[in-house]
Amino acid sequence: MLPFKLVYSDDYYLPIGAHVFPAEKYRRIRQRLLETGAAEAADFVSPQPASDQDVLLVHTPEYVGKLKTGMLSAREELEMEIPYSPELVRAFWMAAGGSILAARFALHDRVAFNIGGGFHHAFPDHGEGFCMIHDVAIAIRRMQRDDKIRTAMTVDCDVHQGNGTAAIFAGMRIPNDPLPSVSRSLLGQAPARMRNAHAGDVFTISLHQENNYPAWKPPSSIDVDLPDEVGDEDYLAWLDNALSSGLRQFEPELMCYIAGADPYREDQLGGLNLSTEGLKKRDELVFQVARARDIPVMVTFAGGYARKVDDTVTIHCNTVLAAQQVFAVGA
Ligand SMILES: [Zn+2]
Q: 42 C-alpha vs ligand 1 centroid, how far in Å?
């Protein structure tokens, strides 16, 4: 039995037909965790779909109305890059409900997973890049509305920048709290760079490949723009640096780790060069930092487009194993 919950629903499946996004990955992750004995049936809990009221904590009434009534324009549907259907709306509402439940469990158990979610390209008024609504932002706003947290930090390790997250949480400067500038020379030769912007009640960190979607990257609180082909060692150094810098500036009551599998070297939509082992070290690093500072962590899975879907499943399952190692009772 795991010392944390895995939130999962068969309804996470995205009815999008033949697509680079492996919609069946959620079911396969659950199956693999059970088959390998990493998890047992009792570790899984089923979510309820988010309510429209929850979704409206982040998204505009106009956009939610269009989604509920099937009134997206052809252009809006194209930008979302997945074919609209009422079933798809249900799947995204369920993923958001899953992230809300995972956030609640994380606050109770120190860590919890949504075996799905991480739709970080959704904006308040439109969807993009396979993302209809932003489940993580909805979960954060719901926890704040319920007075369970005031502040949160997103740690986005998907290979693509978290543009929706940055746009949703931008702008609210904390008065009388100047942010220290970050040393850019800490890692010497690395051609990657770290950019800082003002944080509000949610501090956003994104480590991503600069030369990749989205072309326009609205500023996160910390953006680490990585050059193509970055490998394990440099990636882990930058992640460590970004986490330390972020946690010097901000004390979150909840960490939302967006554990994309697409920095993997065999990814079809990514151009970084991480190994499966490197990705597991990445997960361990995030969990170790959160544990050392006693910050609850909610995990979502975001992207993963490895040539073999099996590899994507392995990388996501490894994130569960990393949490198990770091958060094991007595560890
Ligand atoms: Zn991605």
A: 30
- Among candidate residues 230, 34, 246, 24, the one with its CA nearest the CA of residue 116: 24
Residue 12 Cα, ligand 1 centroid: separation in angstroms?
17
How high is the pLDDT of residue 158?
98
Confidence of residue 134 (pLDDT cuts 50, 70, 90): very high
The whole-number average pLDDT for the span 300-326 is: 97
DSSP-derived pairing of the beta strands 5-7 and 44-45: parallel
Protein residues within 5 Å, CB atom, of ion ligand 1? 158, 160, 260, 262, 303
- Each residue of 99-110: pLDDT tens digit? 999 999 999 999
Helices (H), 110-221: 135-145, 163-169
For residues 132 and 164, is the Cβ–Cβ distance under 8 A?
Answer: no
CA 125, CA 109: separation in Å to the nearest integer? 33
pTM: 0.92
Least Cα distance to 197 among 232, 162, 230 occurs for 162
Task: Say how many Å lie between the CA of residue 248 and the centre of ligand 1.
Answer: 27
Return the number of other C-beta atoms located less than 10 Å from residue 46's C-beta: 13
CA of 331 to the centre of ligand 1 (A): 32
Measured in Å, residue 210 CA sits from the centre of ligand 1 at 12
- Answer for the pair 196, 221: CB distance below 8 angstroms, yes or no: yes
